[in-house]
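Attaching the record inline, Q. Sequence:
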Amino acid sequence: GQKIRITSRVTSEPIRYDRQQGLNLLGLRIYLALFPEIHYGDEAVIEGVVEEGKLTEAVLVKVEPSKGYLEVLRRKILNIYQTSLPEPHASLVAGITLGAKSSLPGNLWEKLKKTGTAHVVVASGMNVTITAGFLMTFFAIFLPRRRAIPLAIAGIWLYSLISGLEAPIIRAAIMGTIAFTVQELGRVAQAWRALVYSAAIMLLIKPDWLVDVGFLLSFAATASILLFEKRIRGFIEAKRRFKFLPQFFKQDFSVTLAAQVGVTPILFVSFGYFNMLSPIINALILWTIPLIMVIGGIGGLVGLVIPELARLILYLSYPLTWWFISVIEIFS
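Structure, as predicted:
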């Protein structure tokens, strides 16, 4: 019930709706007018009244654009996407590659939420996993594995800083760091141990993550995959009726179905709805995510030097984003 003034750095990309933009600061959900736009890394001064985890009657007093090197680099890459691809394809590439959801059209964001696929266009552990695998493969071509691992770890944290240090990103970065470190020490990576260690480290640094929905969803999904994915995949592989399905579809379906076991109760309690077709929808689009990420990452970096070449590279993602948007349109 108190009116307060918040001065804080924006540590997660705001979401743009048709008539407002939403963001989280200091554990409070805040909705502001569309303009002036707020971006990841900016410092914002906002006044409002605290009510049930929200800041109502919120007014933007001041916003200072970040001048940090990584934030400037992020904005340049996002601008390359916007000038190279039509909408909503540009925003989709930006969301999948860097977790930048602020430019997503409001109607597309609502359709993503309704179909249970919003997680693929926000900063998530999957982004870090794909980045880690790509970096490890790339560095291992030129260096012995023992020397490639520290570079891959550095790349994971650099990507995490550019994408925004949200709970799922940090969890995946810590888990990836632990997994690669034990590899370098010659030990077998224990996923459960890495998950528990990352949770303990995160809660030690920021205890209020214990009630953060993103944190809970991230860990519930990871734990469910570790518990159920292998069993679900074994069941699908054993049934003759599923023999005709492509291998990538069966793998994506088993992963998403396993994750849904853990996240469904949290989604229902937090948002009041859940799409029963979500595992099928995810299986239809998940195969495009690594390809879009790789094309988006290479295109963004090349665009910093040769914009014309970047445009050609990014257009390779167009058939993939078209398929993604078409599936979402059909099922929403």
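The first strand starts at residue 3 and ends at 9. The mean pLDDT is 81.

More tomorrow.
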